[in-house]
Design a protein that fits this description.
Its EC number is 2.4.1.-. This is Glycosyltransferase. One of its GO terms (molecular function) is UDP-glucosyltransferase activity. Belongs to the UDP-glycosyltransferase family. It is built from 18 helices and 15 strands. The chain has about 475 residues and is an alpha/beta fold. The strands form 3 sheets. It has a 7-stranded parallel β-sheet, with helices on both faces. Strands 12-11-10-13-14-15 form a 6-stranded parallel β-sheet, with helices on both faces. Helix 10 links the parallel strand 10 and strand 11. Helix 1 runs parallel beside helix 2 (about 45-55) and helix 6 (about 140-155) packs across helix 8 (about 220-225).
């Protein structure tokens, strides 16, 4: 009898995508996989919805199950932070999730793997006697910091915000400026958001084990900190399994009916000559910042491929739109910019096939928001990065990327929330044609080789996943007895 693994990423393309890659690993080991999604009472962005639909359509071997929608109180409460609403929603879905698991033959149910934000469903799995694990889609460095934060916050009468850029010492990671922590964690310890997030990270380390989307050599110090009584002196964390890098594969040319226009354009550019500027599915910048970046790119004299989204913080976003959600580039960018950079640069609206672009021989650098999925994709492709972190844990990732991993340099303007044209010009030139850029490319190339080795037969990530399967089998037998 084939066994079934249930993966529960909740909603959000940034969580569904890496868990889909994890699902494919289970499939290769002979397991059936069901991905459980929830239907939020508030709409995802069009691009997010489309991306999830695209993922489902391109992975027919995975069964996707959407839990029945429900009407729960207070989801439209204007005073509630969207993150708290999401957590409340996922908690209400526990009943539906339990009913779904009851529908699977207990003997064939191998395990349940929960996304970091669906962690309340641990209670359902414990109740049913099902092996339950966490899939932490972020970096090991981020998880290490988050597990150490409660001890730092405990007993404080004020939040960490007042510390500004003061470096904080955490085991396993470089000194972390207080300002670089997830902003909600900087608030007063009794703040509702701060308490909710602290509870999430605590519960993430209370399942039967943690699957990490990383590989040992990339974050060795952080991984080791999670394996001993270093992060939380009073207890040992559950087993840590580094099973990454789990990233999607770019589509092969022969598999495409029609290649994206930006790939056709890249075909005409010299090797490693193009800066790819893309800030993820939510990376919206202000109109002023977009214009400043445009000036810097133009002055740099370098080739570029730039994915531009509708600007953030606009009181009248419709003024930028011609049809639908795509930005009107003529209104957003400096007058004449597109004409002056024609041939040397290409600006695309809202979306570009990121893995295909990173894998392309012409791509020489990647300006990224430092989301962990994007970081891993660039490392796997061997592309050095310029860091422009925006939100969530991205500033934390930036510290590790530049100081521990050696795969990136920063655009220092992120510290003030505005990157000037002069810095864009200088840093783009540095990475593409400077001596420091050559050294950076060499380090990233070495990381790429390590990533490939991790996933080869007998590689550390393959061995870690095999050990995970053995541990689940052993645990499953104990729970059934």
């Amino acid at each position: 009898m084939r066994q079934t693994v249930v993966l529960y990423p909740g909603a959000g393309v940034g969580h569904v995508r890496p868990m889909t890659e994890l699902a494919n690993v289970f499939l290769k080991h002979g397991y059936d996989v069901t991905m459980v999604l929830v239907e939020p009472p508030f709409k995802l962005s069009d691009s997010g919805t489309t991306a999830i639909e695209r993922i489902a359509a391109s992975n027919p071997s995975i069964s996707f199950h959407v839990l029945p929608s429900l009407q729960a109180p207070d989801f439209a409460a204007p005073s509630k932070h969207p993150f708290l609403l999401m957590l409340q929603l996922l908690h209400y879905y526990n009943e539906q999730f339990e009913a779904f698991l009851h529908g699977i033959d207990r003997k064939s149910l191998h395990s349940v793997v929960l996304d970091m934000f669906c962690i309340d469903a641990t209670d359902v799995c414990v109740k049913l006697g099902v092996p339950v694990y966490t899939f932490f889609a972020g970096s090991a460095s981020c998880l290490s910091v988050l597990t150490q934060l409660p001890a730092l916050i405990a007993g404080r009468q004020t939040g960490l915000k007042e510390l500004g850029d003061t470096p904080l010492d955490f085991v396993g990671v470089p000194p972390m400026p207080a300002s670089h922590l997830i902003k909600e964690l900087l608030e007063h310890p009794e703040d509702e958001m701060c308490k909710a997030m602290m509870n999430i990270w605590k519960r993430n380390t209370e399942t039967m084990g943690i699957l990490l989307n990383t590989f040992e050599l990339l974050e060795n110090r952080a991984v080791q900190s999670l394996r001993g009584p270093l992060c939380i002196p009073e207890r040992i964390l559950p087993p840590i399994y580094c099973v990454g890098p789990l990233v999607g594969k770019g589509a092969k040319d022969e598999d495409k009916v029609e290649r994206n226009e930006c790939l056709e354009w890249l075909d005409m550019q010299p090797d490693r000559s193009v800066v790819f500027f893309c800030l993820g599915s939510k990376g919206a910048l202000s109109e002023e910042q977009l214009k400043e970046i445009a000036v810097g790119l133009e002055r740099s004299g370098q080739r570029f491929l730039w994915s531009v989204r509708r600007p953030a913080g606009s009181d009248n976003p419709e003024k930028y739109l011609k049809v639908g959600p795509e930005p009107d580039l003529g209104s957003l960018l400096p007058q004449g910019f597109l004409e002056r950079t024609k041939g040397r640069g290409l600006v695309v609206k809202s979306w570009a096939p990121q893995m295909d672009v990173l894998d392309h021989r012409a791509t020489g650098a990647f300006v990224t928001h430092c989301g962990w999925n994007s970081v891993l994709e660039a490392i796997v492709a061997g592309v050095p990065m310029l860091c422009l972190p925006l939100e969530a844990e991205q500033k934390m990732n930036k510290v590790s990327m530049t100081e521990d991993m050696g795969v990136a340099v920063e655009l220092e303007g992120y510290m003030t929330g505005f990157v000037k044209a002069d810095e864009v010009e200088v840093k783009v030139r540095l990475v593409i044609e400077g001596e420091e850029g050559k050294q950076l490319r060499a380090r990233v190339a070495a990381r790429r080789e390590e990533a490939e080795a991790a996933l080869e037969e007998g590689g550390p990530s393959r061995v870690a996943f095999a050990q995970f399967l053995l541990d689940v089998d052993s645990l499953g037998k104990q729970l059934r007895e």
